Amino acid sequence: MQRITSARFEFITFLLTAVVMSALWWGALDTRPLARPDEARYAEIPREMALTQDYVTPRLNGIQYFEKPPLQYWMTALAYEAWGPSERTARLWTTFCGFLTLIFTAWIARTLGGGRATQWLAPIILASALYPALLGHINTLDSGVTAFLTGAIAAYLHAQGSQKHSRIGMAGAGIFLGLAILSKGLIGLVLPGIAMVLYSLISLNFSAWKRAHLALTAFCMLLIAAPWFVLCSLQNPEFAHFFFIHEHFERFTSTVHQRVEPAWYFLPILIVGLLPWTFMLPHALYSAWRHSKPSSFAFRPSRFVLIYALGVLFFFSASGSKLPTYILPAFPAFAALIALQLTSQSGSTPRYAIGLGCLMLGGLFLTAALLLGMPDLSLQWGIALDLDPDMVQPYALFAPWLGVGGGALLLASLLHFLLPSSFRGLSYCIVGLAGLITAVSGLHGATALSAFNSASPWVNTWRAHVGEHARLFSIQTYDQSLDFYLKRTVTLVNFEDEMGFGLKQEPERSIPHLEDFLKTWGTQPGDIAIFEPNQLQTLQAAGMRMHVLAQDSRHMVVSYK
Fold first, then answer.
1. pTM for the complete prediction?
2. What integer pLDDT is reported at residue 435 of this predicted model?
3. 29: Cβ–Cβ under 8 A, 6 or more apart, which residues?
């Protein structure tokens, strides 16, 4: 990279940017209620785990839940035991893993040989790219698996670059692989394995396998991951088939999970999610392939990182089950390659590409702010917003926060173009700050959306009516955030969905038929039932006696009359 004015000024610029971005990163833990379904689900499972002290069998609403491994549940449950259940402790592990990914991304950048500036810039790019910045603060399992996959790739690159430390590096890679498997399953092993195989086949270079120390790596991986799988299988004989066959093989080779999307599904997610750095990606990928420097062992680290990132993208694109968050593990690799490109290439192309990314993302945010904040304007423009009536006002309150993010990006774009080329590092830091400010402002503003995506706002209106020993029924619906905010479970009535497998093992934990529920309704004092308003007439026609305690557009809470 061209020196800004001096090495010391460059160091101070990156250091101050890192400090400010770190403060922003940790400042969005508890600014909004937990949203359903994912955030609430992954907050409730560890709450029940901490309550029952059963750290082997995960449960959701008291029902066996084997869809994912337990590492995040364990760590969140420990946070609950230390500081109590809250939005902050529920998101603590996710946010920590997102921050850890930034550190591992800097480690990858170091192995690529781009110098100190590359090491600083790579995590700044990742922290400010829209998708990883958001998902690093949303309570899902993707942040954890991304952190440990990134750590495994960094350790593998370290091992390949140093014959002296190759065993230590691969032992570390095995530990990270084990943690990745405990975070989200066998995908933690499959993705790096695909990268190793593809790199060898495409480059016609199999020497890397000699320094992979597969036996040592496998031992460290199994030492971390295997004990829980063995113990859970011993306590729950039905676990192994469901987890390994249904949740892995069938998920990716069939459409059993009904998440069918076209092959190009992840491409727009990548384009928008990497903004404001997206338009640097083609330059970075080209350079990583054509101009990557081999190590002393002829291993090309930047080419391997490229193959790993594209392998993640292509694997999930070919899968029969697609969710937007699946490709998050590719973003750290892309960030490292972009940082390498920016710190090694001179000329005006990067300035134009980054400025265009800022303008595009800023324009998207400002346009969304106008349309959501002024619904009449959207109708004048001929744009019909697909919003339920109860969503219009919350999104109008959310709109100004989008405007703040869009304004920050446009200002960063202006400064980026105005600063002379000798201040390129400073301009990259400004863009990074603006990108993270945009994401954090959106997270803060999302509090307004809790009116329809969380039980938090309305549960307090009727919590006092629920006695300590009262039965609470959820009829033909289940709000994952309800359990967390009530600090108790509910009895499901005529509802299975994601609890279907667990209920087959423990059918006594629900009431499968409405007729059976009506026989028990009101037989104990203080009975409370929750259902969607569109079920009211059906329940009344069935003879259910009730007194309405609370109601909004999506829920009704009634007691026995």
1. 0.92
2. 95
3. 87, 88, 91, 92, 95, 137
